[in-house]
Design brief:
- The chain is an all-alpha fold.
- It folds into two domains: 66 residues; 197 residues, Cytochrome Bc1 Complex, Chain C, CATH 1.20.810.10.
- The termini are far apart.
Length: 288
């Protein structure tokens, strides 16, 4: 008679419908008719199965713990599993593409900020250091530089799709207003980021842009003084542009994107205009 396995090494009872262990190992670990080698192999198999089962239960328990305290499951279910109208196509992905471009800008911007020095004497040298010396620095800087252009193009395409498809009409007027504000903030982020390399082209282009703002009625001169941080361009100007570009505008964009997505989930996606026209024609025929 072989001695029974210790309680700590005994595997848990199999779940309904599960198959027994390999090599004929049963639930109680007795196998091979009392062969010591087979018993040792069964013990190792039982230990591996127990560790595997525990590893699978850890993420499930963590998700259950978070869901019990946040109640996020109903929100995620309503947000991810919502109905979309018939006829949606690739034009409807422009909003998601714009959000992906913003995430790219945020991630690459954080990496660049680790090496950038917002000083009139060190800014250009720090950018050269990122491009020439930092590992993958040229790639990250290129993703950030050209990603800004991609984001501006996608914002305009997304707003054009919304306008021509009539998705700005009732009850989505507030979402349209938020989109217009997001467009303005995107342009402002591009304008403030253009100065940061602090080379000749960035400096004089920003001078022209600030002077254009100064020509605006009433608030124009005050806005120009605020952007310059005084009467002339200097270290304060660069620091102010850096703070606005890195902290103020991304925070506002992230908050408004959250509100934008909430309204999209709450109000739903508008149907394409050709489907609306077909539906109106069918209703007219029924009335006749």
């Amino acid at each position: 008679m072989t001695p029974p396995l210790p309680r700590a090494l005994r595997p848990k009872p199999p779940r309904p419908g599960s198959k027994p262990g390999r090599n004929g190992a049963s639930a109680n670990g007795a196998t091979g008719g009392g062969d010591p080698k087979a018993l040792k192999k069964a013990r190792k198999q039982a230990q591996r199965e127990a560790m595997k089962q525990q590893a699978l239960e850890v993420p499930i328990a963590m998700l259950g713990w978070l869901d019990e305290r946040t109640g996020s499951t109903p929100f995620l279910r309503a947000f991810l599993f919502r109905k979309t109208p018939q006829g949606t196509n690739w034009y409807y992905t422009l909003g998601s593409a714009t959000m992906f471009a913003f995430v790219n800008q945020a991630v690459t911007g954080v990496v660049l900020a680790m090496y950038y020095n917002p000083s009139t004497t060190q800014a250009y040298g720090s950018v050269r250091h990122i491009i020439n010396d930092v590992f993958l620095g040229e790639l990250v800087r290129g993703m950030h530089k050209w990603g800004s252009t991609v984001m501006v193009v996608l914002v305009f395409l997304h707003m054009g799709r919304t306008f021509f498809f009539g998705a700005y009409k009732y009850p989505r007027e507030l979402n349209w207003i938020i989109g217009v504000v997001l467009l303005i903030l995107t342009m402002a982020m591009s304008f403030t980021g253009y100065l940061l390399p602090f080379d000749q082209r960035a400096f004089w282009a920003t001078v022209v842009g600030v002077n254009i703002n100064a020509s605006g009625p009433i608030l124009g001169p005050y806005l120009a003084d605020f952007l310059r941080g005084g009467a002339e361009f200097g270290t304060t100007t660069l620091s102010r542009f850096y703070a606005i570009h890195m902290l103020v505008i991304p925070g506002l964009i992230a908050a408004l994107i959250g509100a934008h997505l909430y309204l999209v989930a709450k109000l739903g996606t508008s149907a394409p205009p050709w489907l609306k026209a077909e539906k109106a024609r069918e209703l007219a025929e029924e009335e006749i």
